[in-house]
Design a protein that fits this description.
The chain is an alpha+beta fold. It has 20 helices and 21 strands. The protein has four domains: 183 residues, tricorn interacting facor f3 domain (Immunoglobulin-like, Sandwich); 92 residues, Zincin-like, CATH 3.30.2010.30; 155 residues, Neutral Protease Domain 2 (Neutral Protease, domain 2), CATH 1.10.390; 130 residues, Alpha Horseshoe (Serine Threonine Protein Phosphatase 5, Tetratricopeptide repeat), CATH 1.25.40.320. The relative contact order is 0.08. The protein binds ligand BES and zinc ion (ZN).
């Protein structure tokens, strides 16, 4: 064998890293991390030979073996998707290597925020987002989920700031103007789960195993929104077995965080757009929690098998949600998922291969291939299997899957072999081949059904009775508004806004569905509110449809470009890249 992962230079015939000691200084003036990474091998090298590491925009100052012998190295020109291969000539009998290096101000995993981009406005903020292949812009590493590492970290920051890592806290020491924080990660993780944040941060307890972190001005609201996290943990353990990561803390990020949530182990990162004030968006926390089993414990071997992470996790998320909020609410979320899936499949019209569960991503940037397909098609596939086997048998199978593959990285073939062994015939019965290696949604997909969905469907594009809509959950509003968007008839935007003040909605899911509808219908107040939203949040789930809706209309196409130009510097590097691609402009 040699290279296995389309997105890494990792070569399984070379030394394999098992542990990392990371020492860095966070330099907010220059926007770089500077320090060293010591990489420990699984076994000392028997003979001299090359070791290929992934890097992106790193400056390598020096490399030596752990016992101090200098190591020659060469950095290749950067590949646009993978970054630059760093080849080390490692001598025999080396237990590992130490690299001194610094990151670039443009590191794709890092966002450096000015004080003005934070809630408090007084201190800068820095955070990482390594999934899928950005860890290599923070440190030289075998950046593939096939390699798992434990680590220790020592991080030097300005004394007013705190460091948080997706790891266990070992202590903080203040030396004059500088604070040193020490962390360690005892459980082996794939590099995409390496994560940290630096800023003015405070916490509130949520339960015996969890607390929420946020900037001081946000932390009370976050504690109220996430008060049910402890109940969520217990529900999840009831379904999937003991929680394997000791703590489940939640960090509420600044608004430019590009995702809804990121399952960094022990410390999930979430967007502040979840703070709707009514706990209606906490399914995102359930989702990140569910990754503790499906993703962080049983990990996709590379991005071609991403559905094993996300499809299983959406399934697990909805099982947790069903326990806590019941079947009806969960069915609404499943219906939203199905609508998003159908839309994504339509968008991939000219690239149907990206609607397979198993994808082929050599030379393809995973950030560009990202969509809801692995999430919602994966979810539907598992629901189909569940329906075939019956829930008790499927639950037992899921637990066995987690036990069998815990702390391993697996491919779709590992999954199918497991199924053949433990539920012979099931894959064939549900036409698994069509799900895994075929386009779109196979016909045997179950449709979400529930009382509340039936009522919404009966309403169609007519205006709801005030007493009916007053009782709607945000998910029902979203479904109703999306139904209007799909209906050919002119939407009654004025009447809806006058009665329900949708342009002022504090729930971003509802607001964005509303703005998409308003922009399509040419409802003037939607334009200003959209432009404002595009300046206040950086979550790609909202940026993408809003920029797309603005640029779809000849009258607002120029607004889209001007808005992007004004806000691009404040977006996360990944979001900037993705939106620039969508608008056809320079990032
Ligand atoms: N792991 C993902 C986020 C991610 C995926 C980041 C790929 C980078 C590359 C996370 O668990 C996720 O799926 N977040 C969703 C939440 C959801 C489906 C409830 C999101 O961000 O919207
Ligand atoms: Zn996920």
């Amino acid at each position: 064998m040699a290279r296995l992962d389309p997105h890494s230079y990792f070569d399984d015939t070379q030394a394999r890293v098992r542990a990392l000691d990371w020492h860095v200084t966070v330099d907010f003036d220059r926007r770089v991390l500077r320090g060293s990474a010591a990489l420990h091998f699984v076994t000392p090298t028997a003979a001299p030979g090359p070791l290929d590491l992934d890097t992106r925009d790193l400056r390598i100052h020096a490399v030596a073996t752990l016992d101090g012998r200098p190591v020659a190295f060469s950095l290749d020109p950067a590949d646009p998707v993978l970054g630059a291969r760093l080849r080390l000539d490692v001598p025999a009998e080396a237990a590992g290597v130490r690299l001194t290096y610094e990151t670039s101000p443009d590191a794709s995993a890092l966002q450096w925020l000015t004080p003005r981009q934070t809630d408090g406005g007084r201190h800068p903020f820095l955070f990482s987002q390594c999934q899928a292949i950005h860890a290599r812009s923070v440190l030289p590493v075998q950046d593939t989920p096939r390699v798992r590492i434990t680590y220790t970290a020592e991080v030097f920051v300005p004394a007013p700031l705190r460091v948080l890592m997706a790891a266990a806290f070992d202590g903080r020491e203040v030396r004059g103007e500088v604070a040193i924080e020490r962390w360690h990660m005892p459980q082996p993780i794939p590099p995409y789960l390496f994560a940290f944040a630096v800023g003015e941060l405070e916490s509130r307890e949520l339960g015996p195993r969890s607390r929420v972190w946020a900037e001081p001005g946000v932390v009370e609201r976050a504690a109220a929104e996430f008060a049910d996290v402890d109940a969520m943990l217990l529900a999840a353990e009831g379904l999937f077995g003991p929680y394997p990561w000791d703590r489940f803390d939640v960090l509420t990020m600044p608004p430019s965080f590009p995702y809804g949530g990121m399952e960094n182990p022990r410390l999930t990162f979430v967007t502040p757009t979840l703070l709707a004030g009514d706990r209606s968006l906490v399914n995102v926390v359930a989702h990140e929690l569910a990754h503790s089993w499906t993703g962080n414990l049983v990990t996709n071997a590379d991005a071609e098998h991403f559905w094993l992470n996300e499809g299983f996790t959406v399934y697990a998320e909805r099982r947790i949600q069903e326990r806590l909020e019941g079947f009806e609410i969960t069915a609404l979320h499943a219906a939203l998922g199905r609508a998003a899936l159908d839309e994504a499949i339509a968008e991939f019209g000219d690239q149907p291969a990206l609607t397979h569960l198993r994808t082929h991503l050599w030379e393809v940037d995973p950030d560009q291939a990202y969509s809801v397909v692995p999430y919602e098609k994966g979810y539907l596939f598992l629901v189909t299997l569940e329906a075939h086997l019956g829930r008790p048998a499927f639950d037992a199978l899921l637990r066995r899957y987690i036990e069998t593959f815990g702390f391993q990285s697996i491919t779709t073939d590992d999954f199918t072999a497991f199924m053949q062994q433990h539920a012979p015939g099931a894959l064939a019965a549900v036409h698994a081949k069509a799900w895994i290696d075929g386009p779109g949604v196979p016909e045997n997909a179950p449709a979400p059904r529930s009382l509340r969905l039936d009522r919404l469907r009966a309403l169609g594009a007519t205006l709801p009775e005030p007493a009916v809509a007053a009782a709607w959950t945000p998910a029902e509003w979203q479904l109703y508004l999306q139904g209007l968007l799909d209906a050919a008839a002119a939407a009654p935007c004025e009447a809806l806004d006058a009665r329900w003040r949708l342009t002022d909605s504090r729930n971003y899911e509802v607001l964005v569905a509303w703005l998409e509808l308003g922009l399509r219908a040419g409802y003037a107040p939607a334009v200003d509110r959209t432009v404002a939203v595009l300046g206040e949040v950086g979550r790609m789930k909202y940026l993408k449809p809003l920029y797309r809706a603005l640029s779809a209309h000849p009258e607002t196409k120029a607004v889209a470009r001007a808005t992007f130009e004004r806000n691009a510097a404040g977006y996360h590097p990944i979001a900037r890249q993705v939106i620039a691609g969508l608008l056809g402009v320079a990032p």
